[in-house]
Design brief:
Blueprint (H helix, E strand, L loop, with lengths): L11 H5 L3 E5 L19 H13 L2 E5 L4 H8 L5 E4 L4 E4 L2 E4 L7 H14 L5 E4 L4 E4 L7 H17 L3 E5 L2 E5 L6 H11 L4 E6 L5 H12 L4 E8 L5 H6 L2 E4 H20 L1
Parallel strand pairs: 1-2, 1-10, 2-3, 10-11, 11-12
Antiparallel strand pairs: 3-4, 4-5, 6-7, 7-9, 8-9
Helix pairs in contact: 2-9, 4-5, 6-7
The structure holds magnesium ion (MG).
Magnesium ion binds next to loops.
């Protein structure tokens, strides 16, 4: 169902509860997907709405697979909590704070980076994000060889260096084998801020962990958590299956944020 069908039911506690949080992904959620990930920025409309929402909600947080310094620079709003590298790092007091366990994998990540660089097909871009490694293949010269030839080799490299391999929208990621993901970050933010209700918005495979977590927390009556998926032409099916409701693209997310802001403001008058 679309979020508009849920304003009087599932989404209602977001307006009526006392301590409410909004936790959102950036790429494909606030920022349109573009050929070069370096050119992706949240839309002006979404930034304006997030800034206003942060004045009315207990928590507004941006969670991303990007390095947290990169995420912070792109969203660039005060008063938000920033969690990058899928929760492996936070932006605190103007600097990067990395989860202590990550440091043990620095060496492995650098070795894996050198190995991936050696075998990367034409058009594939390797991004060193410190705590993780991203391998972007949106611009690969021969797309057919990515899954058939390149992915098995990546898997071997990940295994050899005791890292985990993940795949997203035209991207592979090598990460330390730690049980930290967008789902555990979502839960942690809810607990830290003692939230009565919270919504998570995301578009990709890694966001599905948080969408599933929303259902679990709601079932456990721990928090009225809601998972919103962002729908586009290439939305992974796990997102569609795990989401409680859907928004239609980045523009649909903006429309939701506008409704959220207006409703929250109307409820306090
Ligand atoms: Mg995304």
């Amino acid at each position: 169902m679309t979020w508009r069908d849920a304003t009087e039911t599932l989404l209602k506690p977001l307006i009526t509860s006392e301590r409410v949080g909004l936790i959102t992904d950036m790429d494909g959620t606030l920022a349109p997907i573009v050929p070069n990930p370096d050119d992706a920025y949240p839309t002006e409309r979404s930034k304006k709405l997030l800034a206003q929402l942060s004045e009315h909600l207990t928590l507004v947080a941006a969670v991303s697979g990007r390095a947290v310094a990169d995420l912070h620079e792109r969203v660039n709003l005060p008063g938000l909590v920033y969690s990058g590298n899928h929760g492996l790092e936070r932006w605190e007091n103007d600097k990067v704070v990395v989860a202590p366990m990550v440091l043990e994998y620095e060496n492995a990540l650098q070795k894996a980076k050198a190995a991936v660089t050696d075998i990367a097909p034409e058009g594939v871009m390797i991004e060193d994000k410190g705590a993780t490694l991203s391998v972007h293949y949106r611009n690969a010269a021969i797309p057919a060889e990515i899954n058939l030839l390149f992915e098995p080799k990546l898997r071997d490299i990940a295994d050899k260096h005791n890292l985990r391999l993940f795949s997203g929208r035209k991207v592979f990621e090598l990460r330390p084998p730690l049980d930290i993901d967008k789902g555990t970050v979502f839960k942690q933010l809810i607990e830290e801020n003692n939230l009565d209700a919270a919504i998570y918005i995301g578009d990709d495979t890694t966001d599905a962990d948080a969408l599933k977590m929303a259902r679990q927390l709601r079932d456990d009556k721990q928090c009225h958590a809601v998972g919103m998926g962002v729908q586009s032409d290439d939305t992974p099916s796990v997102v569609l299956i795990s989401a409680d409701c859907l928004a239609d693209g980045v523009e649909g997310v903006e429309d939701f944020l506008e409704w959220f802001l207006k409703s929250v403001m109307a409820s306090v008058i």
